[in-house]
Amino acid sequence: MKLTGVELLEIRLPLVAPFRTSFGTLTERPALLLRAVGTEAEGWGECVAMAGPLYSSEYVAGCADVLRRFLIPALAGREHLDANAVAPALTPFLGHRMAKAALEMAVLDAELRTQGVPLARELGAVRDRVPCGVSVGIMDSVPQLLEAVAGYLDAGYVRIKLKIEPGWDIEPVRAVREHFGDELLLQTDANTAYTLADARHLARLDPYGLLLIEQPLDEEDLLGHAALAKAIATPVCLDESITSARAAAAAITLGACSVVNIKPGRVGGYLEARRIHDVCAAHGVPVWCGGMLETGLGRAANVALAALPGFTLPGDTSASDRYYRTDITEPFVLDDDGHLPVPGGPGLGVVPVPEALAEVTVGREWISL
Q: Which one-letter DSSP state was computed for residue 343?
């Protein structure tokens, strides 16, 4: 397939409710979409960067700039471009994994549509549906939290993840565990909000039987995570620290984690995400698929990834209505027992609904190759 051009689309999707974490509160989801047009098909990619460099160093405008000036032009002139060639072509440009992942995703989608192959089959999926958890943001009060969790459980979600930060950790976890019982699959996500000096405090979460505590310390502090893992009984899961298969192998070797959250956008794409899955499986480390408030495009790809055999924990692959009243694709709807179906069509298996996409698009740019 020869790539003839890439369209960058900036969209803004309002959230159904504010989503608060330790690094801020979101009321809308600004996102960058890519439409890669080839000689035989077109494909869609989604960049998971946020509006500002809070979760990571990348942000929407920066991703658009590096794609426009460096990454997309690096693919020019290739008569037979396939997704496996994207990462090597972009290697000279340091960092910018979220932007690279979006471009690779768009090329991969176009390539698989040409071949008539679903993304799930290409990645090595073994299931046709995946169990779904939900991420619950920091609330104004414990009663508000309990009401929100009850609603998600009534909707069918099989696992609850609580965002935590200093001052909002022990009390909400205790309240949820006591109110909903020991059978609830419960975990927490700190988004780097703590330091190793908080180890004794975090050990107070141990009695509540959590599946894991996600990324408690700074993303670069692998040694701190290794020390914390020895100081608490709750399994330590790494998110922001896992940027590649090599980083995952290093973290596992150091004892910095016993669970890994794989976010394809954070690691440079779905092909690298599969390599991380393989590394973790070889070490007996369970993985799950994290979410970045994706639209239906990224959600479709995440569901496909989560169907691989090593994904033994429910991920953040929530239904569309968890975040959006109207998605840009046909909505993903949770079934009666808390699962989402893996798309079976070629490529991502979904495409944007033109009217829905047009309603939330605030900018377009065509880059010819």
A: P
